[in-house]
Amino acid sequence: MATYDFDLFTFGAGSGGVRASRMAASFGAKTAVAEERYLGGTCVNVGCIPKKLLVYASEFGEGFSDAAGFGWTLGHRQLDWKALIANKDREIHRLNGVYRRLLTEAGATIMEGRATLVDAHTVSINGSRYTSKYILIATGSWPVVPDVPGSNHAITSNEAFFLEKRPERVILVGGGYIAVEFAGIFHGMGSHVTLVHRGEKLLRGFDEDLRDTLGSEMRKRGIDLRLNCTVGGIEKTSNGVGVHLDSGEMVRADLIMYATGRAPHTQGLGLEKTGVVVDGEGAIVVDPYSQSSVPNIYAIGDCTNRIMLTPVAIAEGRAVAETLFNNRPMSVDYTGVPSAVFSQPNLATVGLTESEARERFGDVAVYKSTFRPLKHTLSGRDEMTFMKLVVDQSTDRVVGCHMIGADAGEIIQGLAIALKSNATKALFDATIGIHPTAAEEFVTMRAPA
Fold first, then answer.
1. Is there a single domain that holds both residue 350 and residue 418?
2. What pLDDT is recorded for position 1?
3. What is the CA radius of gyration of the chain?
């Protein structure tokens, strides 16, 4: 019987890799985790957590303006960018320590450095080789910047969290959640923001009403949306960049940031030495149990290009540990996964879009509500909240919930449980709302649109 140095060797100490490794170790597996950058992965270091902190910071600008309607008189105020970034860095450093402690207390061995595969059971790192019964690839994804002239002058979200100063003028390229979130962040902090996107609308794949509403709300705030537009080239100027658009116009800014997608971060791992199959985008092809084409090699998270969300990677990590080391084969259910975009205003969704529901069920009922939030009856801000329910007529089951407005993510999280439980519209109607809240509107929409 073959003996190995480890039962599980994980590539990547992001959310998914840490969850799998912690649980495997708790089940008695001898576990090692290799990380070449930072504990916590993208989410903790250059993703979800620091981004949300910057979103909070950016919302104070509107909050100060709104305060006047409630009787507050405010004096001089200004943003200390360096203090914000320093405070953010301190919190991220604390979380790095938390992840280290979680792994070590579970009994996992942390190896800091770049690990590569020698064969299906052998790993090389820092000049040493180790064998492992199972190998888990959890190396995440990496921002993609298109090959346009001068693209070396652009940054991505990786660098945006470490800028030395706030740019006065920013050009964002992209129409996905990272682009719209950073548009709100920079705009809320006082920068002039131009967002360039090749599509007709933002947030491809989301419900059409959400896409339309978000575009409208962003324009109200003064964000310069350039849709159906692409960047032809970028040149360095004496005080920033000059960006050539396909319209022939050149827009000048202090900074250009690309948010045009992320690709699985699988290059240079040695996968080709083992026969692990990857697709055309470099994503590791796996079965429902996250097993690759090589039986003892598994993969989870963004490097598999299934659903690039931190909670999904965590669920996949748990499932692998349960399957391999707890005699409990487990796969992840990808239906009804909720998601939020921390744009301004927030956007969140769970279930099917209206078009997806019509394609799947044919006969659907749609309920919509657009209203001015109570807060803004005094603040005077021209911002609307939008909510939408999509119902399968044949079963009365609610199959989609969509919202744009304050705390949308917090509200949709609760509704995700209802959808997971196959709640009907009748149950929504029978639920008494909490008044006065925006969330109560989801249980008081009576007439189909």
1. yes
2. 52
3. 24
Co-location of 156 and 223 in the same domain:
yes
CA distance 418 to 411: 12
Dihedral sign for Cα atoms in the order 206, 216, 240, 62: negative
Whichever domain contains 160, its CATH number is 3.50.50.60
Omega of the bond leading into 50 within 30 degrees of 0 (cis): no
**Residues 46 and 79 both lie in one domain:** yes
- In this structure, what is the dihedral angle of CA atoms 147, 152, 153, 157, given to the nearest 10 degrees? 80
Q: Give the β-pairing of 255-258 and 262-264.
A: unpaired
Annotate 251-288 with b (16+ C-beta within 10 A) or e (fewer).
bebbbbbbbbbbbbbbeebbbeebebebeeebbbebee
pLDDT reported for residue 255: 97
Q: Is 192 exposed, middle or buried (0-12, 13-18, 19+ CB in 10 A)?
A: middle
Whether residue 240 is found in the same domain as residue 346: no
Query: For the segment 216-267, what is each residue's pLDDT rounded down to a tens digit?
Result: 999 999 999 999 999 999 999 999 999 999 999 999 999 999 999 999 999 9
Low-confidence stretches of the chain (pLDDT beneath 50): none
**Structurally, how many domains does the chain consist of?**
3
Please name which of 18, 166, 171 lies closest in space to residue 99, comparing C-alpha atoms. 18
Where in the sequence numbering do the catalytic residues fall?
435
The upper half-sphere exposure of residue 376, i.e. CA atoms within 13 Å in the direction of its Cβ, equals 13
Boundaries of domain holding 63: 6-143+263-325
Q: Could you give the CA distance from residue 320 to residue 328 in angstroms, rounded to a whole number?
A: 9
Is residue 422 in a domain?
yes
**Residue 113, Cβ neighbours under 10 Å: how many?**
12
Q: Which of 270, 230, 266, 236 is nearest to 252 (CA)?
A: 236
Tell me the per-residue pLDDT of 164-176, one tens digit each, with 9 for 90 and over: 999 999 999 999 9
What pTM was computed for the model?
A: 0.96
**Burial of 312 per CB tally in 10 Å (0-12, 13-18, 19+):** buried
How far apart CA 30 and CA 15 sit, in angstroms, is 19
Residues 99 and 180 in one domain: no
Using left for φ > 0, alpha for ψ between -120 and 50, and beta otherwise, residue 111 falls in beta
Single out the residue of 374, 396, 393 nearest to residue 383, CA to CA: 374
> In angstroms, rounded to a whole number, what is the distance separating the alpha carbons of residues 219 and 189?
16
Whether the bond into 436 is cis, omega within 30 of 0:
yes
Same domain? 38 vs 162? no
